[in-house]
Specification:
The chain is of the alpha/beta class. It folds into 2 domains: about 260 residues, Aldolase class I (TIM Barrel); about 130 residues, Double Stranded RNA Binding Domain (2-Layer Sandwich). The protein contains 19 helices and 18 strands. The strands form 5 sheets. An 8-stranded parallel β-barrel has the order 2-3-4-5-6-7-8-9, surrounded by 8 helices. Strands 13-14-15 form a 3-stranded antiparallel beta sheet, covered by helices on one side. The protein is elongated, with a radius of gyration of 28 Å. The termini are far apart. The mean pLDDT is about 90. It catalyses: pyruvate + acetyl-CoA + H2O = (3R)-citramalate + CoA + H(+). GO terms for molecular function: 2-isopropylmalate synthase activity. It is an enzyme of class 2 (transferase). Belongs to the alpha-IPM synthase/homocitrate synthase family.
Length: about 525
């Protein structure tokens, strides 16, 4: 069976940049563009050339992409010719192989927001596309508010799409701009448009305001569109855009799509999807969504003992796709609800092989339940569980011994006459027969403590120099004067491996230090350090 080609259009660098709290630097934009290109995305939209200095500089850069780099902007303004519109001039000057114009397709918006006649809007679409085509550009038209426009005035919405198609646009993109359309509506309306404009010239651009952007995009594909627009991790204004990290594996792996369509993303590149998703979060200094479909750390996590047993024996029972197909991995969580199946599965994943009738396995299960009664939680803290298991089932080397540590937080004036909060820490430890003392300042007490601990680990220093603390979480429970604090710390090394450790104490600094020392010990074991 011959499969139809679906084209993927990413707008993370424009729509995604409108996400609250997201800010791209020039280096960020270049890195994300190359990451998308390597994944196999067909079109990478860069933003509005000329709209701000950053985008202007971005479009002036040499991107070296295989993907079609695309500039975004409006069709000509009312009362101007296309040749004399400064916005169009900036688009034509940009180093981009394609231009994506945006035009209103809702008669109400044309008259109210643009203040022009319906016919003038159509003329603006034709003129802008004709000019860009004459300059050798591939052209797309985003029909903004298309679905609301169609519901209000079907003839005019289709007239906008037809004007673009007849003027030579390669793609006419139907936009659910306010994200309010339902999948059945999208499928019905796209089918009506596909009866007028060939599906291989149609695209879909869906927003996620009813949590249906992915479903609406898939509905549009079923109805005939052959370009799908979206963003990595579903970034975008308000509730975001269609999430390409959900759409791509669905299109490539799920029945009804996988046998019918192909994309520029190969099976090999699909296996990097989780890494790409998390790399974007790292660039933006955002915590990954652990429950994200396909790529979240909990996407293939199983907690209940009976389910864990089934997953070990028959993974397809509870995993709708193999985790490795998207670069993720299976997790069988360990907790006070865990049975032997959970424990054995997690030990095997961590590289600790134990027979199911091993005499100390019961001791580990009992220790786990006692620890969690004290407040420890190992569901996310896989590195701490690894150390707990090794201490009970085998041995953990004493790489270093902490004799003492102290942390000081002081509010004072600095040498510039500025009043601020300053933190410093001192750590005294022994490595073999050597006594080491390290002091450091930090942005807060935990940062100071982390810096001091890793400042000098003697003969093990080279093993930990590439560590980066990437996430720090605190939860206070059992409130009141006897409150207990749980701290989770996530580290990453230069190879991209991540691990999380946990510490529990009535004192947040002590809990943090437990998690920090566990992280150092775990890293030393995994890298083959010896005492």
């Amino acid at each position: 069976m011959t499969r139809s080609r679906l084209f993927l259009f990413d707008t993370t660098l424009r729509d995604g940049a409108q996400t609250t709290g997201v800010h791209f630097s020039l280096a960020d934009k270049l890195a994300v563009a190359r990451m998308l290109d390597d994944l196999g995305i067909d079109y990478v939209e860069g933003g509005y050339p000329g709209a701000n200095p950053l985008d202007t500089e971005f479009f002036a850069a040499d991107h070296g992409l295989r993907a079609t780099f695309t500039a975004f902007g409006m069709t000509r303004r009312a009362g101007r010719s296309a040749e004399n519109d400064p916005g169009l001039a900036a688009l034509l000057e940009a180093r981009a192989g394609a231009i994506c114009f945006v035009a209103k397709a809702w008669d109400h918006q044309v008259e109210l927001a643009l203040g022009m006649s319906l016919e003038e809007n159509l003329e603006g679409i034709r003129d802008s596309i004709a000019l860009a085509r004459s300059r050798g550009r591939e052209v797309l038209l985003d029909c903004e508010h298309f679905f609301d426009g169609y519901k209000a005035n079907p003839a005019y919405a289709i007239a906008c799409a037809r004007a673009a198609h007849e003027a030579g646009a390669r793609w006419v993109v139907l936009c659910d701009t306010n994200g309010g359309s339902q999948p059945d509506e999208v499928e019905r309306i796209v089918a009506a448009v596909a009866a007028v404009i060939p599906g291989e010239r149609l695209g879909i651009h869906a927003h996620n305001d009813t949590e249906q952007a992915v479903a609406n995009s898939l509905a549009a594909v079923r109805a005939g569109v052959r370009q799908v627009q979206g963003t990595l991790n579903g970034l975008g204004e308000r509730c975001g855009n269609a999430n390409l990290t959900s759409l791509i594996p669905t299109l490539l792996l799920k029945p009804g799509y996988a046998e019918c369509f192909e994309t520029g993303v190969t099976a090999e590149k699909l296996g990097t999807l989780t890494r790409v998703s998390r790399k974007l979060d790292e660039i933006l200094n955002r915590t990954p969504d652990h429950h994200a479909p396909y790529v979240g750390s909990s996407a293939f996590a199983t907690k209940a003992g009976i389910h864990a047993s089934a997953v070990v024996k028959d993974p397809a029972t509870y995993e709708h796709v193999p985790p490795e197909s998207v670069g993720n991995r299976r997790k069988v969580l360990v907790s006070d609800q865990a049975g032997r199946s959970n424990i054995l599965a997690e030990l095997e994943r961590l590289g600790i092989r134990v027979e199911k009738d091993h005499p100390t396995l019961g001791l580990l299960l009992q220790a786990l339940k006692e620890k969690e009664a004290e407040g420890y939680a190992y569901e996310e803290a896989d590195a701490s569980f690894y150390l707990l298991a090794r201490r009970i089932l085998g041995h953990v080397p004493d790489f270093f011994l902490v004799e003492s540590f102290s942390v000081n937080v002081e509010r004072r004036w600095n040498d510039k006459g500025e009043l601020g909060i300053f933190s410093d820490a001192i750590v005294k430890l022994r490595v073999g027969g050597e006594k080491l003392i390290s002091a450091a300042e930090g942005n807060g007490p935990v940062n100071a403590l982390d810096t001091a601990l890793r400042k000098d680990l003697g003969k093990y220093q080279s093993f930990i120099e590439d560590l980066k603390l990437i996430d720090y979480k605190v939860r206070v429970f059992q409130g009141g004067t006897d409150a207990v604090t749980r701290v989770l710390i996530e580290f990453q090394d230069a190879a991209g491996e991540r691990w999380t450790t946990v510490g529990v104490s009535g004192n947040i600094i002590d809990a943090s230090f437990q998690a920090l020392t566990d992280s150092m010990t775990y890293k030393l074991i995994r890298t083959g350090a010896t005492v």
